[in-house]
Amino acid sequence: MTPEQWVEPVRGVGLVWARSLDGVIGADGGMPWHVPEDLAHFRHVTGTATVVMGRRTWDSLPERFRPLPGRRNVVLTRDASWSADGAEVVHDLATALDTDEPVWVIGGGQVYEAAVPFADRVSETVIDTEVAGDTVAPTLDDAWALVDEGPWQTSRTGVRYRFVEWRRRS
To answer: I want to staple 18 with a disulfide (CB 3.0 to 4.6 A). Which of 35, 70, 82, 125 is the partner?
Structure first.
């Protein structure tokens, strides 16, 4: 599947991540691979939608990309005193998802786990590697149907990847 074939979430909440074959999505506050095509896919998928992330995910973004341009950036944190230019700070997931606009949850692990019950779509990039990491993607159960498993492609960095789309079953 190419980014151009992507459509907005049906009911409004989508999850987007890149994961290794063994489910790792992060290591030491970053991604343990470099796949520029995945970053382009992420930009296309999230488009102009609201993006919801935890504070550590915000901190992991390169400073020049904070806030993510063209999108409402909602940051979940338990720290009532935390603030950052360009971030809309909230302290609970319900508040973060309370919008009529499409929302993409972009991490991290705890935020994904909490958001799975509210999501109707998952866009994942599967990276053809197994790596050590400290954050893993949620496991999708029988409530989810695989609707598109794109072909394996090779990044200009030499890493194999593919785009996969899941939808919540009716």
So the answer is: 125
